[in-house]
Amino acid sequence: MNLNQLKYFLAIVKTGSFSNAADDMYISQSSMSKQIKALETELGIDLFKREHSKVYLTDIGAEFAKYAESTVKQHNDMLLYLDEFATKKSNTIRFGSIPVVSSYGLSGQIADFTNNYNPNINVVIDMHENNQQEVMKELFDGSIDIALIRTDYLENTEAFDFIPYKKDVFVLVCNKEHPLTAKDSVTPEDLLPYPLSLLDVQSVIYTIVTRAFESHGIDKQPKCLTTRHKILMEILQTSPNITLLPNSLVDLDAYPHLTTVPLTEELTSNVALIKLKKRRLNKITKDFWTYWQKTLPLQ
Q1: Which three-class secondary structure state does DSSP give residue 139?
Q2: HEC string of 185-216?
């Protein structure tokens, strides 16, 4: 038995389903099921009754839930207590981000903070840049303390503090020679004849774009998926494919063979700096958070 298994168990109790609990904990449903099965096997009891898509606690499972809640709470209380001592010595900002720091000009903001902070303190930025699912996992497991993410479709918003940073508007991105460049703006129906490239399925951008098509009753399947928007734009330079991206991610100076076309119906994505409300921050990370609140208003 380990602490993560207890957390997964409690997430299922809270949400009433394995799939919703897996979404909340940012793991796959199959991984969640394996962990719970391993826990039940170790304990030698059935914790849940499974009926169709719903799960219910068994009588012994309900009793076990009381101990699981107590154990997880005691663990969190212990970490908070020990953190009082550890954070006083730490000058590290553990910062996770989706791959947008350079595109949004945030490197300069981070440099400005470090350059103007107490000259007697050596500021360490421990930056983790990854897809949103991995960033959220790191935030929950304590590998990072703050994260820059897209907040569209974010679950359990009441668990977080937010500093809104940017409302980003999507545009069509394609080769300058593409037929769609003749239009002043494009609709989802205009895009139907052309192969679509997108960021991979773990990205919020993928979800935003595919749901936009679905809202028009269009089943538009991507022909190409990639993990980085810069790779995507490199592909489009010599391809008949098209994509939809937040305008701030499109660097036409770096990719001179590309152009953008506005969308007839506005499609947006919201980016924010977040932290868990229950997460205790060291002083330098608190100062960094305050700096963002003062200097980076919503764009």
Answers
A1: helix
A2: CECHHHHCCCCEEEECCCCHHHHHHHHHHHHC
- Residue 135 contacts residue 128 (beta carbons within 8 Å): yes
Q: What is the largest CA-CA distance in the chain?
A: 67
Three-class DSSP category at 28: coil
The position carrying tokens 């796959």 is 28
Angle between helix 3-15 and 18-25 (nearest 10): 120
Domain containing 123 equals: 87-165+271-295
Residue-wise pLDDT for 105-151, tens only, equals 788 888 889 988 988 888 888 888 888 888 998 998 888 999 999 99
Strands 224-226 and 92-97, by their bridges, are: unpaired
Query: What's the whole-model pTM score?
Result: 0.71
Q: Are residues 113 and 56 in the same domain?
A: no
How big is the chain, counted in residues?
299
Structure tokens given for 154: 């974010």
Q: What is the CATH number of the domain that holds 238?
A: 3.40.190.290
Residues 114 and 171 in one domain: no
CA distance 242 to 244: 7
Q: How far apart, in whole angstroms, are the C-alpha atoms of residue 262 and residue 181?
A: 10
User: Residue 215: is it exposed, middle or buried by C-beta count within 10 angstroms (0-12/13-18/19+)?
Assistant: exposed
Helices and strands: H and E segment counts in the chain: 9, 11
CA angle 97, 114, 252 (to 5 degrees): 50
Q: Rounded distance, CA 255 to CA 200, Å?
A: 21
Burial class (CB in 10 A: 0-12, 13-18, 19+), 82: exposed
Supply 83's token pair: 């953190």
In this structure, the answer to whether residues 161 and 277 fall within a common structural domain is: yes
Return the percent helix, strand and coil in the chain, to nearest 5.
Answer: 45, 25, 30
Q: How far apart are CA 66 and CA 125, in angstroms?
A: 39
Q: How confident is the model over 152-205, as pLDDT tens digits?
A: 998 888 889 999 998 999 999 999 999 999 999 999 999 999 999 999 888 899
